[in-house]
Amino acid sequence: MQAGSTPTGYALDPYSTLLPQPELAFSQPGTCLLNARTAVEVAGSPEIDGLFRRFVAGLPLPTGDPGNDPANTTQTTLSFVTETDDAPGAYRILVTESGVGIRAGGFEGAVSALTTLRQLMPAHAWRREWNAGGGWAVPCGTVADRPEYGWRGAMLDVARHFFPKRTILRYVDLLAAHRFNRLHLHLADDQGWRVESRRHPRLHEVGSWRPSTRLGPDGVPDGTPHGGYYTLDDLAEISAYARARGITIVPEIDVPGHTSALRAAYPELGRPGQEQAVLDTVWAGGSSLSPTRPVVAFLEDVLAEILDAVDTPYVHLGGDECDMGWWADDPAIAAEMAEHGYTDVKQMHGHFLRSLGRFLSSRGVRMVVWDEGFVTGGVLPDTIVMAWRGHEVAGRAAASHDVVRAPLFPTYFNFDQSDLPEEPRSEGGPITLDDIAAFPPAPAEWPDGMRQRVLGAQFQIWSEWVATESRLDYLAFPRACALAEVLWRGRVADPVDFERRLTVHLERLDALGVGYRPPAGPHPWQTGGTGVWRRSGPGRIEETKKWVESISREP
Ligand code: ACM
């Protein structure tokens, strides 16, 4: 930008502050004023037309006459043209004094472009309401951009702690602001079942709440009931809201392990005679389902209901950390194993997941499994393997399957962000911003064939120790900003420049009302204090990394 042309509200050339960083972005002299009078001209699908109209209508402007600034007599245009040869998610923006022109291959690119356009405005443009006078002055310039990875995700565990629908919708907005395009909802685990079932209503009636929670290191029940679930209508709303913001919901029903809540509702689906309750402890309960036909049929009912509500090509079936110890001695399971000629219970684990996967295929949906599912053969040719353990199993899976990287290190954001003693209680760590910035989803040492099977990556927030939205904000941001850049650009090319852009970006998060962790350390109210949220001791991330790599090599 030339001297003298910097519009009010800009400290820096905004083309140099974009996060994630586009492939190409530079400013030119002049500015373009966007306001409620800006004409929208879309040569694209009705969906894109709606997206652009909503963008202009949603710009925070004073109500009343948008042209109340007497100096403002210009009429600008926000236009979209479909570019048939663009890669999914790719887009171009040209800002001139007469308007903003956007070109993209489709809806995903259009969403990304508008996110970038909002970042070209002052941080106040991220507020819901703001008196921007006659409109928002966007400096002239050009952006040409495309994403490196197609799966740019976040997993939220709503089972250990339930997050109300409004938190999920807000989270969708925050993810979209960082060009993430998948929200994986972990809807079922030992500590809670979080979705309505009209066919099997005890799932939500019984499985969705617990009378108490044992959080503290001393394991004392807190005596406070905890629970909640999404109705199928809530899920449909979340799915539509996310879709309109370029995000696909990936629902997960974790089976056949992690099923205490499911079995509190329907104990007959697991080990005969085993008492079950929704767990009030933070750790896994060792409950598992019987991998037999009647259980597959029951789960097909549940998955069908979810698929009627959620518009998604992906359903996650879990498959992780399953206790198969009792399977060989159970007559019904042994009989099915004999029928298939299986000699190892792991074959039954694979068989069970494949059966459900074929049901999903019949509905045009690809199954996703944690990497244990890959190891036991619980995969179909088009199954996506979500590799959470070490790098070794991710590589094994990428030799034959599409892989989404979700390694504990460095994508489990429920771990501490630093080694400061005042960090709140978590599961260990630290996993720092620098660790994430240095993470290569497709490692350079892998052959091209394997690298090409890496669809992308996602960060996880497991919620054993995450009971509130403010804790969620604290853990997700700003680490999600670093992963967003890794996934969009392929890597954080220049950590010093990333830090500079992040400083500006934090003003956008302030405008959005995000309770992120400040770079220098937590605010006093974000620390663990001296109660049950106090940190349990120094993190041992090197030991954790060794452990997760060792279990990753399990056959
Ligand atoms: C996992 O952390 N068990 C996926």
UniProtKB/TrEMBL annotation:
Residues 540-555 have a biased composition (Basic and acidic residues). Keywords: Glycosidase, Hydrolase. It comes from the Bacteria. Its EC number is 3.2.1.52. One of its GO terms (cellular component) is membrane. Residues 149-490 form the Glycoside hydrolase family 20 catalytic domain. It is an enzyme of class 3 (hydrolase). Residues 17-145 form the Beta-hexosaminidase bacterial type N-terminal domain. Residues 520-555 are annotated as: Disordered. Pfam families: Glyco_hydro_20, Glyco_hydro_20b. This is beta-N-acetylhexosaminidase. It comes from Planotetraspora phitsanulokensis.
